[in-house]
Write a structure and sequence with these properties.
The protein is of the alpha+beta class. It has helices spanning 36-48, 50-69, 86-93, 95-98, 119-133, 175-188, 221-236, 248-259, 262-281, 284-307, 319-342, 348-375, 383-414, 418-428, 433-439, 444-465, 485-496, 518-532, 543-553, 568-576, 601-618, 630-665, 668-692, 701-727, 732-759, 767-798, and strands at 2-11, 14-24, 104-111, 152-157, 160-165, 201-207, 241-247, 503-509, 537-541, 589-596, 624-629. The protein folds into 3 domains: 2-70 and 261-474 and 637-798, Multidrug efflux transporter AcrB transmembrane domain (Multidrug efflux transporter AcrB transmembrane fold, Up-down Bundle), CATH 1.20.1640; 82-89 and 482-636, no CATH class; 99-257, no CATH class. Helix 2 (50-69) packs antiparallel against helix 13 (383-414), helix 11 (319-342) crosses helix 14 (418-428) and helix 16 (444-465) packs across helix 23. It starts with a strand and ends in a 14-residue tail after the last helix. This is MMPL family.
């Protein structure tokens, strides 16, 4: 490579101008100063036994491809919740008793052109009830609808208490029978819970089993959701009948269904990446080899995940995107280094060796930082996040193998094309105006401008980020689009039923056979009254809510008797007339149901705090209030886990990444130069989340760790090249200019490649995938900008400038 330079030599503090023309620079392979022994050991194995190594990669790829082909969607209730949190531990202890209140699906059957009091509607409701009864995974004994025998009415008459099924035996749809059903519904007190207030729809309440009692297999939420769609919605929905389905299982099923479109996004990202690499390298050979290695990394990652017994849940299904994008972004450095080295006349094998030596350590450290960013997610004790962390860490590990080992070997065979070399020579012969401009940030005066601007931006972002909340900020299922079928169904049920689908359940533990005693009744009644005064609570109900009504009913319906009784015989008689779901089999636990207006983060925080305060003040040997079950109770536990784990995760990821950078460069000043831009990007990301109304939750928390781990790649590659030129004697500005010429474009392409890999998620039907795509795109691009602008600026102000041998004055 021939260039014209004017050099300034510093000898004993005196400047002497030297002119060097037609300087021939030929890169020489150099061992890493700290890990030269590792490189010296690995390099001969790779390049002296290239064919056996290729055979090994081929056989491993066949094995992992076979395993990956057997990977199936997988999701379970317990994986989505923090099972080690005290709330969840309490819930799981009483899971069987609380099943009708826990993992439940609600199917609202609406008559669009009339009310429910018609033979046609009630016949359709019966068919739907029977159809649901035989769907695998349904807890059939606790299934409820107007047609099931566990939904009854009661009435006090002159002859005493009487009751029966709401839809009587022998129902034939005659006007008399229809009128009897109408009367029974009013007498049952089910209006607002199983029957809509406007009388146009009823609910089929479907509790679920986590495992099939016959086969022991876990409930397949994707399959279960599809069965509800085909057997219920598609089969029975007509111009007169509208079906609305809500519940945790339906949310997960819709997420799995939406995730199937992820293959289309992967194909789009795949094609865009190929076009981007071709535009950058102008070489089909290196592009094809790079894409092959990165595709193998995805196959290996999926195969290993399958061998570990994991499946693809709606969260970890995004990991192959990241694996592919990270692999391509690192491979760009190989292409860039290979093309630059080939211009000097070196052979393919020599340039492959040079590429290996130059990139193995910084590339491995950068990938190790990626793995750290992923692995810190393990501190969040939620199954889906931990599996995502493991899956993503595996992806990074296989990238080290395919990109660091396999790619140099393949490149030693195929090399780069003449078109690539001509394009590389053209780039090196250009005037590098962008590099000239950006290198000014390595001067103190421009560095101060960049740093002060970043400090101002950080201050504004930090102020906005204080509004960031933990948990959901929207009603319905925020993981799905606001106009999704599920959220429309949820809005209908919320608007037409007084018992909200957002239920916070507090379990009241008592000695055996004492759950109906007056001391328990008195404190539970006070608890219900206090909770009903908390903002966000619609209503509450418990065993004693029903007991008051029964006591009044047995006393001629006189409302003066609608109160708790100290007489044990009276309370026991009322107790026996109430559904068994309101207390445990041995009467040692009764649930208090708190129906909420929504499950937003502030609402759940308020409810949980009020319930905890009451429990702390009233728990004793007779009665203990245990939190929490119900969908809102479980979500409150999830929010608490995330709130506690977030600072711990951030400390770990920043601390470990900083230690790795410190180990690589042996300078706390350089470590600050690389880490500060990452911190600024994290705060900016939190500010954007606050502005977009996105809370910190299971779907968004991984973004911060991923952005930090992957973003540090830019800084490591850039400063590694700056250090290389500084060691040759260049001053900082000249070293950074040379870095921009050799590595800057590759880093920019890295940022664009990573961003393209996740940008396609924005069009996903699944909102949390779209949110993750948007946030990761921002973090990848902004980390790139921060590395290119802030690292030289901070280095100019923090890193002492030792007297150099040469300083770049003019490049032509």
């Amino acid at each position: 490579m021939t260039i014209n330079l004017t050099l300034l030599e510093v000898v004993n503090g005196e400047n002497k101008t030297l002119t060097q023309t037609q300087a021939q620079i030929k890169p020489q392979p150099q061992l890493h100063p700290k890990l030269g022994l590792v490189e010296r050991f690995i390099e001969p194995i790779l390049f002296n036994f290239r064919l056996p190594v290729l055979i090994f990669f081929l056989l491993a790829s066949i094995l992992f491809a076979y395993e990956a082909a057997q990977l199936r969607p997988d999701a379970s209730f317990q994986k989505m919740v923090p099972i080690f949190h005290p709330y969840i531990a309490n819930y799981l202890k009483y899971e069987n008793e609380l099943r009708p209140l826990g993992n439940v699906v609600r199917i609202a059957v609406e008559n669009k052109n009339g009310d429910i009091y018609s033979k046609e509607y009630l016949d359709t409701l019966k068919k739907i009830t029977d159809e649901v009864f035989y769907v695998p995974g349904v807890d059939r004994g606790n299934l409820k609808s107007l047609w099931t025998p566990n939904v009854n009415w009661m009435e006090v008459t002159e002859a005493g208490m009487t009751g029966g099924q709401i839809i009587p035996q022998g129902f034939d749809g005659t006007p008399e029978k229809i009128e009897q059903v109408r009367t029974n519904i009013v007498r049952s007190g089910r209006i607002g819970s199983l029957v809509a207030a406007d009388g146009h729809s009823t609910i089929v309440l479907v509790p679920l089993l986590e495992t099939d009692p016959d086969t022991g297999a876990k409930l397949n939420y994707g399959q279960f959701s599809e069965r509800l769609e085909t057997l219920i919605r598609q089969k029975y929905e007509t111009k007169d009948i509208k079906i609305h389905i809500t519940g945790f299982a339906k949310v997960v099923g819709d997420l799995i269904h939406g995730a199937k479109a992820i293959g289309v996004f992967f194909a789009i990202a795949f094609v865009l990446t190929i076009l981007l690499l071709l535009a950058y390298s102008r070489c089909w050979r290196s592009t094809s080899v790079t894409i092959l290695c990165c595709s193998l990394a995805v196959i290996w990652q999926l195969g290993i995940v399958r061998m570990l017994g994991f499946g693809l849940d709606p969260y970890s299904i995004l990991v192959p995107f990241l694996t592919f994008a990270i692999g391509v972004s690192h491979a760009v450095q190989n292409i860039n280094t290979m093309a630059a080295a080939r211009l000097t006349g070196s052979s393919n094998v020599d340039t492959a060796k040079l590429t290996f030596r130059q990139l193995f350590i910084p590339g491995s450290v950068a990938l190790l930082c990626d793995a750290v960013g992923f692995s810190t997610l393990l501190v969040i004790k939620i199954g889906v996040i931990q599996e995502l962390a493991i899956s993503a860490s595996i992806g990074v590990a296989v990238i080290i193998l395919t990109k660091m080992f396999l790619l140099p070997i393949l490149m030693s065979y195929v090399g780069v094309s003449d078109a690539c070399l001509r394009h590389q020579a053209k780039k090196q012969g250009s005037q590098h105006r962008a590099a000239h401009f950006l290198s000014r940030f390595a001067e103190p005066r421009f560095a101060w401008v960049a740093v002060l601007g970043a400090a101002l931006l950080l201050g504004v972002a930090w102020n906005i980020s204080r509004d960031l909340k933990i948990g959901d900020l929207d009603a319905g299922a925020p993981e799905l689009r606001p106009d999704s079928q599920y959220n429309r169904d949820n809005a209908y049920i919320s608007a037409h039923y007084s018992t909200s689908p957002d239920v916070f359940v507090v379990m009241v533990k008592t000695p055996a056979n004492e759950c109906g005693s007056y001391p328990v009744a008195e404190v539970v009644d006070r608890f219900q009254w206090e909770m009903e005064q908390v903002a966000g609570v619609e209503s509450t109900t418990s065993l004693f809510s029903g007991m008051k009504k029964v006591i009044a009913a047995t006393n001629g319906g006189d409302l003066r008797w609608q109160a708790l009784s100290r007489n044990r015989f009276v309370s026991n008689a009322a107790h026996r007339m109430l559904p068994s779901e309101l207390y445990s089999n041995d009467c040692s636990m009764l649930p208090v149901l708190i129906f909420l207006t929504d499950h937003k983060a502030d609402t759940l925080t308020r409810i949980a705090k009020a319930a905890e305060n009451f429990a702390a003040a009233n728990n004793d040997a007779t009665v203990q209030f245990l939190l929490a079950a119900g969908n809102s109770g479980i979500e409150a536990a999830t929010n608490k886990v995330i709130k506690q784990a977030e600072p711990q995760m951030l400390m770990l990821v920043y601390g470990i990444v900083a230690l790795l950078v410190l180990w690589e460069f042996r300078s706390w000043r350089v470590t600050l130069c690389i880490m500060l831009p990452l911190y600024i990007t994290s705060v900016l990301c939190e500010a954007i989340m606050a502005k977009l109304g996105l809370g910190v939750k299971v779907a968004t928390l991984p973004v911060i760790a991923l952005g930090i781990g992957i973003g540090v790649d830019y800084g490591i590659y850039i400063y590694n090249r700056i250090q290389h030129f500084l060691d040759q004697g260049l001053l900082l500005k000249a070293a950074y200019f040379e870095t921009l010429k050799s590595t800057g474009a590759a880093v920019a392409l890295t940022g664009v490649t990573l961003s393209l890999g996740v940008l396609t998620w924005v069009w996903s039907d699944i909102k949390f995938q779209a949110d993750m795509g948007l946030l990761l795109t921002f973090m990848f691009l902004w980390n790139m900008v921060g590395a290119i602008v802030m690292i030289p600026a901070l280095a100019a102000l923090l890193v002492p400038q030792r007297p150099g041998l040469i300083s770049l004055k003019r490049i032509t």
